[in-house]
Amino acid sequence: MEIQKGTYIKEYDETMEEKVITGLSISDDVLMVTVNNVPYNSKNISIIFDKLAKHHVNIDMISQTAPFNGYINVSFTASKEDVSTINEVEKELKAEIQGIKVSKESDITKLSVVGIGMMKQSGVAASIFTIFAENDIEFKQVTTSEISISYTLDSKDKQKAVTVLAQKLNL
User: Fold this and answer.
1) Which pLDDT score, from 0 to 100, does residue 43 have?
2) Residue ranges covered by each domain of the chain
3) What are the angstrom distances between the C-alpha of 118 and each of 19, 54, 60, 153, 167?
4) What are phi and psi for residue 145, nearest 5 degrees?
5) Which family does this protein fall into (predicted)?
6) What angle do CA 127, 116, 162 make, to 5 degrees?
7) Which is higher by pLDDT, 67 or 22?
8) What's the pTM value of the predicted model, to 2 decimals?
9) CB neighbour list of residue 125: distance below 8 Å, 6 or more residues apart
10) Using CA atoms, how far apart are residues 161 and 157, in angstroms rounded to an integer?
């Protein structure tokens, strides 16, 4: 079988749980968009993501702040290739939701740690936060699933993050 780039998923095996984190995934094709000063209500969140969907922008990570004084901030990631489409969506959003501010960062890397053992192990995120703190690696966004934790960080920190995580996690 020829080995190709990509993600390989295999059948569950109990030995997979012995090691909590079994891999790292990196993507440099990341645009992080933050919509600030969004009046807090479900309708506005719906408007933002409906417009992106109608323009066929594939969204990856989504994070939202807790409401403060009636406003929230929403961040999401998409492919850098979608920047011109997102610029169009930004114009539409500003016309519909008064007072919002949109910022975009393209010098971003998405780093994910993956492992089926995370399903039953607490403290994994805390361990990664500590590794990042001890190595002066700042992250901008974090999202989780049962078997992965994904971070956005400045691309300049990518190699350092990969190196220290690989060392500390024995990858």
Assistant:
1) 96
2) 15-28+107-168, 31-106
3) 9, 35, 21, 22, 18
4) -135, -175
5) Belongs to the aspartokinase family.
6) 45
7) 67
8) 0.83
9) 142, 144, 149
10) 6
CA 91, CA 102: separation in Å to the nearest integer?
10
HSE-up (13 A, CA, CB side) for residue 54? 10
Residue of 69, 31, 33 lying closest to 48 (CA atoms): 33
**pLDDT tens digits for 39-92?**
999 999 999 999 999 999 999 999 999 999 999 999 999 999 999 999 999 999
Q: Any idea which fold 15-28+107-168 has?
A: Alpha-Beta Plaits (3.30.70)
Homologous superfamily in CATH for domain 31-106: ACT domain (3.30.70.260)
- Is 85 in contact with 58 (CB distance < 8 Å)? no
Tokens of 43: 């309708």
pLDDT tens digits along 44-59: 999 999 999 999 999 9
Backbone phi and psi for residue 159, each to the nearest 5 degrees, phi listed first = -65, -40
Cβ-proximal residues to 14 (8 Å cutoff; 6+ apart), any chain: none
Q: Find, among 120, 35, 44, the residue nearest to 86 by Cα.
A: 35
